[in-house]
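Progress against Task 2.4 (sequence-to-structure conversion) is shown through the following example record, which the project officer requested during the mid-term review.
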Amino acid sequence: MIKTGIRDSYGREINYMRISITDRCNLRCCYCMPDGADWIPMKDILTYEEITAVCQEAVKLGITRFKITGGEPLVRRECSKLIRMIKEIPGTEVVTLTTNGLLLGEQLESLMQAGLDAVNISLDTLDKEKYKQVTGFDKLSVVLASITKAVESGIPVKINAVLQKGMNEEEWLPLTQLAKNLPLSVRFIEMMPIGYGNIPQSISNEELKDKIMRYYGNVTEDFRIYGNGPAVYYSIEGFKGNIGFISAIHGKFCNLCNRIRMTSTGDIKPCLCYEQRWALKPALRMEHKEKRQESIQKILIESIKNKPQMHCFEDVKSVSEKHFMGQIGG
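Structure tokens generated for the chain above:
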């Protein structure tokens, strides 16, 4: 029986948590951390045991779906160990992973053995030189090999692409072709004004969708459920996979938001747009188990009850979150 998630003050069911396990990354994407970052000391980052303790209390509240993110989560040792620990919590439904794909190929087997349910792979271009320009590294072939291996393994695969004007805006065509040839989803994500994303280069998904529909012709909305998030999917005749759009700016979906986020340092963020956060670390490091569990639940409940009605990404001056995405959790 599926447990009903806790509801926020606007009646939205919250059943999904995105968990950052590190701020570190092995790429330097131009819209995330082109100049690197001052890494958080490991002593300040939650242990796997502490993350699992939060998930245990979250499941009791009806939050049963988890996404492991970073930074790049696979640069942290034994990521598969954490996935196994969360999957073993009674009531956990789904544990998925977002990655840039560089280490996925070599870790895929252990991740799947741990119970990983699906994987999202960030990829903004299929052009070798553009990939190097966007990410800072000549590693496109490694990512493509990881995608192939993941698809062949049978695990559900989604490709996440961010298009930027003057950078890779014409890459929509080769990226959509991935879904023609492989049974995966290619999702186009509008850039959100967070950190280095706070630049006027966003491409409207409405314009992109119109362009794709004109090019391919036979495009129909796909109403099947493909995960936890707000993507709207479309099927194209002759495609093995499908196309999705996550339109935070031009297709505001706050009324359907079902998530909270936890940073690698144990801060709960009910909305990506705002700086507002609730610190779990003091509760996690209480000695008395029952008090620790009670305090974690209270903080989760409080953060959810204070979840804003909607973001304000369309009004950049009102966005109060100043951290980069790699520091928050993708």
